[in-house]
Every structure is written in C-alpha cells, then in structure tokens.
Amino acid sequence: MPLKIHPINYGNITMDSSGLVLFRNPGVLTTIPTLGFLITGGEEPLLVDTGSRNSEQYAAFGMIHERTKQMTIEHHLAQHGLNMKDIRHVIHTHVHIDHSGQDYLFPMSTTVMMSRRELEFAASGLMGPGMYTAIETKHLIDRLHTRGALRLFDVDGTFEEEIIPGVAVRLSGGHTPGSISILVETDEGLANIAGDIAYHLGDQLITPILDQAAHEPTITGNHAMSTLQEKKAIKRALSGTRFLFISHDSPALISGGKVVGRFDGAIDNPKADATTAANYDLLARPQLADEIEAA
C-alpha cells in the first residue's frame, strides 16, 4: 500500500497579517488553519504535530484561536478508521505552541519525536513564552525522563534518520534551529512536510511580495533564524521535492524548484489524495505544460 499524507486542521488562528509574511498588511487581521498531517499506508500510521492545547493561551498575545468538535484529533483519526491507541509515534516539525499543545493527550507509551536541537532551543527561552509555553516544555521534559516516551533526532544536515520504511527526517532549520522536515516517499516522488518554513505560499513563493530576484522567496514575520538561513531553508524544502506540505496553507505541487500547482480541497478531506499530481490545480504560467512534462 503506497504512503499517503492527509492534512488535518486542528484549529484556526486569527492574527496580524505581518506576523506571517514580513511587512504584509500590518494591522490587518488574517485567519489561518493550524495543520497536522496523518501519514498512512506504511507499517503503522504516523501523526505529525498535534495542534494547540486550548484557545485561552492565545488571548494574552492578541490572537484568536478557534477549535470546533470537527477539529479534534479524535475526530480526524476516526475519519480514517483510527483511534488514539493506533498512534504509536508522533513526530514534530518543531514544538511551538500550535504544534505540540496536545501531546498530553497521548500516553507515555506513545513516543513523541523531535530534534534534540529543538528541545534545547525550547528550553532556552530565547523566543519567549508565546512560542514555547511553560506547560508544553515541561511536558516534553517529563517525556525525556520517561523511558521510551521521547525520541530525539540528531540530524544536522549531513544525514537523515528513518522512522519507518519510506519515512525519514532531516534538519530544515529556517524557522527555528531545530525545525525538521518529514520526508515521505510516494509513488509520484518525494513529499516534504516542512512545518513553518513558510506560512503563505502565494505571497512568499509564488508571487513574493518583497523580493524581485528570480526564485527569491519572501521570508516570514516569525522566525528565530537569520534572513539568509530562512531563505536557504525554503529553497532546500523545494529542492528535489514533488509535494510540499506546510502547516498553515494548502499543499503544493513542485516542479523545477517552483510551486506549479495547489490542492485547496485536500485539507480535512479523507478521500483526497494529496500525493497524486493529477489532483492539483495547475497555476496559470507560461511553459507550465513543459515543466510538468519534464518533471
């Protein structure tokens, strides 16, 4: 059975637009989904990220968080015939508030996975309590001191670590020093679940709002790395990738290091196949047909 990736929405966040894409519409509120990803078709199902603990955590930072009953982990798993006990491994792209907040719902017998550098960075306090909350960081430390409850990757850009056959992780950086990409081998090429290396594909990669050079992405408004490091992380995520999944936008089809298609209907749709190129709506571009053919 081929490996498949299912984007699932854990909740919507409303925040200032410039906090997502640098200098974009400051003072204008925008609403984004917070996505996790269920990987099926392998020797076991894998869950990437767990969303936010609750909506109250966001109020102190002037953000609005919404989660309906259809946005719970239990509901999403049920749509695929699974329950919480079927998830033996949870993988984190990184552990910001909106990515690791529901780890506590899983028993210590479920192994949570992340990069060692990310845990170090979370505990350092450098990004403050808005990104790495005390309650989530303490939970991860409890897992660290419980046998088998936490797995730490030491990927440094020179090698990858395998989780199950066809699924591996590599260091991506860019957003945080310990951010990782989850690489999934599909029938039509490599899929990259890249976390928050970008927030909005249209304004950052397809038609960058700040940059004029060809293939030059606009960076986010929320990152712990330098501008150059974030740009390199975005470009690396596009390199050798056929399908790109980020945590706050719909999946993208990639060819020649560029976004050439989108699949807006993939989120929260158990029947959608986001690892089949034919399901993507192609962008209107010159020579696009040649690019697709060449890929």
TrEMBL record:
<keyword id="KW-0862">Zinc</keyword>
<keyword id="KW-0479">Metal-binding</keyword>
<dbReference type="InterPro" id="IPR036866">
    <property type="entry name" value="RibonucZ/Hydroxyglut_hydro"/>
</dbReference>
<dbReference type="InterPro" id="IPR051013">
    <property type="entry name" value="MBL_superfamily_lactonases"/>
</dbReference>
<keyword id="KW-0378">Hydrolase</keyword>
<dbReference type="Pfam" id="PF00753">
    <property type="entry name" value="Lactamase_B"/>
</dbReference>
<feature type="domain" description="Metallo-beta-lactamase">
    <location>
        <begin position="33"/>
        <end position="248"/>
    </location>
</feature>
<dbReference type="GO" id="GO:0046872">
    <property type="term" value="F:metal ion binding"/>
</dbReference>
<comment type="similarity">
    <text>Belongs to the metallo-beta-lactamase superfamily.</text>
</comment>
<protein>
    <submittedName>
        <fullName>N-acyl homoserine lactonase family protein</fullName>
    </submittedName>
</protein>
<dbReference type="GO" id="GO:0016787">
    <property type="term" value="F:hydrolase activity"/>
</dbReference>
<dbReference type="InterPro" id="IPR001279">
    <property type="entry name" value="Metallo-B-lactamas"/>
</dbReference>
